[in-house]
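Dear U.,

For the methods section draft, I wanted the exact inputs and outputs in one place so we can describe them consistently. I've listed the two proteins in the order they'll appear in the manuscript figures. Please don't edit the token lines directly; just add comments below if something needs changing.

First protein:
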Amino acid sequence: MSRRDVLFEEALQVLDALDGSRVRHWVGGGWGVDALVGRRTREHGDLDLAVDADHLQTCLRTLNDLGYVTDTDWLPVRIELRGPGEGRVDVHPVAFDDTGHGRQAGLDGAHFDYPPDAFTVGALNGRQINCLSVQQQRDFHTGYEHQAKDTHDLAQLEALDQP
């Protein structure tokens, strides 16, 4: 099995475990783009997850049960965990108000908004995956210098707009 396949299986194991623990989560980053496209388009260094802040402790327990350990703790902004294999999970807690609008803490008092339409469903290998919308993904690709993977992801998102 290739490294790419191993990382995909590890990502699916995490998503299945979070579903089993009833943790509200949405895939962002490169895996989220791939879910929107409907296929793997590149290698991924981590699995980016927006997680309902009310479910954060259950999320972390679930990941710990899978053998993930904290690597970087910048809570309330984010927490990155390293798995027993090659997988990494980057968890971004999102607090929701009564209207379904989410907000994630940022560094130095900044914040990231998740409007109610920021959430959708994509698919990989026939499995439905809760993920961030095309527009939310685009919004998160602004305000910094792009690496090759970012340029790739934006091109994938742009292709979704083509008839």
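Second protein (the one for the lower panel):
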Amino acid sequence: MRLIVGLGNYGQEYTFTRHNMGFLVVDRLSEKYDIAFDRDVAACRVAMKDDVILAKPMSYMNTSGGPVKRLLSRLSLPAEDLILVHDDMDMEFGRIKIKWDGGDGGHKGVRSVVEGLGTKDFLRMKVGVGRDPSQPPEIFLLSPFSSWEKERLADILDRAAEAVATILKYGKEKAMSLIN
């Protein structure tokens, strides 16, 4: 059983913002593999099919650790079975990178999950959203995608969904060598 959690901010006003890249990837997985979100479990919106559980914490990004911890506990899964999908503004828009353990890289949502779980031993899939040095990070991340970004978003979400499928099919080491 694998738990795939997309990080984002719960609420309609955040749907198509850069900081919701994790939610958008999980939504694409839901569409692509016909896994319907039909339950709320441990403060997360959850979809289940076979050995895969998709989840979106129903909280703000920076408080995701509690819901993720409760969901893992409720499912009796160790942190090692978690794939955390999130945005990364230190990577160019659309770049995908898979990482095992390590620091939070300044990402407050990842920091919350690490603190909530008490471990860094879980898989992360980072999706680059780029950076605009003329804007404070919190303004840039919570603003809608530009028209240029919107044109490329569907392809990026498809590639991210394929990256998750690669992790599930081949395991983390092989997926990292293929994707990174």
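Candidate sentences for the figure legend, describing the second protein: Residues 147-170 form the longest helix (24 residues). The chain has six helices and seven strands.

Thanks,
Y.
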